[in-house]
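testing teh design pipeline on a random one, pls ignore if ur not involved
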C-alpha cells in the first residue's frame, strides 16, 4: 500500500487530506460512479473487484439524541441495538440524511468516516479486524480509500464492536 502525496490525490477530499497529514499508509481507488446504482457500497465493491465484506459503508445514526457514525460491511446491515450498546446508549435510530450531510460535510453515498466537518463518535464493526485492509469512502461517490482497520480505528477514535448483521 503506497502513501499518496497531495499531488497524487487528484481532487483531494477532507478524508484524503487527513490521511496524508497523519502519515497513514493508504491506497486511493477511483471508479466511475453510476447514479442509477441502487447501492453505493455494493457498486464500489463490484467496481474495485473487492469482496463486499472488505468494503465498509459509513452510516450516521442517532444514539440517545447524539449523532454517531457506524462503519459496517456493505454485505450486511447495521444492528442499531448493538450500536447503542457499543457507545453506552439505550436507543438508536438512523439519522436524518440532511443532518448527516450537514454535520459530516459529505453528501450521502460519499460520507467518509475520515475528515468529517465535526468529529463524531465512531464505531467500527469488529469484522474489519479479520482483514489486512478495508475500503471506506474517501469523501465522494466513486472514490474509496483502502487502509488497515487498525489505522481507521485510530484515526477516527473508533470503538471496535460487533455492530453489523450479515
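output:
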Amino acid at each position: 500500500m503506497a502513501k499518496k502525496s497531495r499531488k497524487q490525490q487528484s481532487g483531494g477530499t477532507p478524508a484524503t487530506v487527513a490521511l496524508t497529514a497523519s502519515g497513514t499508509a493508504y491506497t486511493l481507488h477511483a471508479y466511475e460512479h453510476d447514479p442509477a446504482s441502487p447501492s453505493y457500497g455494493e457498486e464500489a465493491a463490484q467496481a474495485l473487484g473487492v469482496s463486499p465484506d472488505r468494503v465498509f459503508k459509513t452510516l450516521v445514526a442517532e444514539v440517545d439524541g447524539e449523532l454517531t457514525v457506524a462503519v459496517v460491511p456493505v454485505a450486511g446491515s447495521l444492528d442499531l441495538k448493538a450500536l447503542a450498546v457499543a457507545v453506552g446508549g439505550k436507543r438508536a435510530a438512523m439519522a436524518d440524511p440532511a443532518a448527516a450531510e450537514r454535520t459530516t460535510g459529505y453528501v450521502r453515498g460519499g460520507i467518509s468516516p475520515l475528515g468529517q466537518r465535526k468529529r463524531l463518535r465512531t464505531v467500527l464493526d469488529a469484522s474489519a479486524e479479520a482483514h489486512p485492509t478495508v475500503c471506506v469512502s474517501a469523501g465522494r461517490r466513486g472514490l474509496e480509500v483502502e487502509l488497515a482497520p487498525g489505522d481507521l480505528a485510530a484515526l477516527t477514535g473508533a470503538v471496535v464492536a460487533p455492530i453489523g448483521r450479515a
